[in-house]
Amino acid sequence: MIPLRSILVTAKYMFLCLSGLVTLMPIFYVLLSSVKTNQELISGGDLLPKVWTFSNYKDVWGN
Question: What pTM, to 2 d.p., does this model score?
Fold first, then answer.
């Protein structure tokens, strides 16, 4: 039989991992969205961009 303490420790670490994923997912989404074209942003669809457009950063920073 598995001790209660090890079950609680496992549950705690599972909760912490899930919380970390939930916290980091919006950051990854924003970073991936920042390299999409405007058309890809409007159409929604895939998480990964079909065309990686780094010129968006150039436009923002004014170079």
Answer: 0.71
